[in-house]
Amino acid sequence: MLDPSDPGWEPSSIADIATMVVDDDPMITKIVEAALLNMGMTNVYAINDPRQAMDFLAEGIGGVQLIICDLQMPDVSGIDVLEQVRLDFPDLPFLMLTANRSPDAVSKAVGKGVSSYMVKPFQLGELQDRVWQLINRRYRGLGKESNLPGSLNSV
C-alpha cells in the first residue's frame, strides 16, 4: 500500500483525503472544517496562524492531499503559503479563499499555481462542490464524473 505522500497514491474514499485549512479567522476555519467533515472527510487540520501552517509545511506536508487557504492574513499571506507548497508539491490541490475580488489578486494567485479560487462569502454547497472538483480532478482525472467512493455521483 502506498503512503499518501507517495506520487502514485490514490484515495479509496473521501475519508482518506487529509486537508489543511488555513485562515486567520477561527470562525471561517470552523465553518470550512464542518463542511469538509460533512462531506465524509475525517482528517482536517484547521490552522488559524499562517506561521504555524508554514512550519507544518517546512516539516513536510504530512500526508495532506488538499489545502484550503485564505489569501489575506497577517504576517504570512496565502500567496506565501502557496509558494511554499508549490516548491515541493506542484500538483497538490490548493483552493484559495478570499474576500478580495480584485482581478490583480486572482491573477497573482493563478500565476503562482493556485488550483482554484473562491470569493467570500460563499455558500457551503459551493465550497463542497469545488472541493469535489479538485479531488476528482487530481485523484481520478475525470472531474465531476468520478466514481470515487463518497463522491457526489456515488451518493
Describe it for me?
- With 155 residues, this protein is α/β, with parallel strands linked by helices.
- The protein has helices spanning 26-39, 50-58, 78-88, 103-111, 124-139, and strands at 18-22, 44-47, 64-70, 94-98, 116-119.
- α4 (103-111) links the parallel β4 (94-98) and β5.
- α1 crosses α5 and α2 runs parallel beside α3.
- The radius of gyration is 14 Å and the shape is globular.
- The two termini are 26 Å apart.
Major sheet description: 5 strands, parallel
Roughly how many Å is the radius of gyration? 14 Å
Low-confidence stretches: 141-155
Proportion of strand residues: 15-25%
Summed over residues and divided by their number, the pLDDT gives a mean of 84
Draw up the topology in text.
Elements: E1 18-22, H1 26-39, E2 44-47, H2 50-58, E3 64-70, H3 78-88, E4 94-98, H4 103-111, E5 116-119, H5 124-139
Concise structural overview:
The protein has one domain: Response regulator (Rossmann fold, 3-Layer(aba) Sandwich), CATH 3.40.50. It is about 40% helix and about 15% strand.
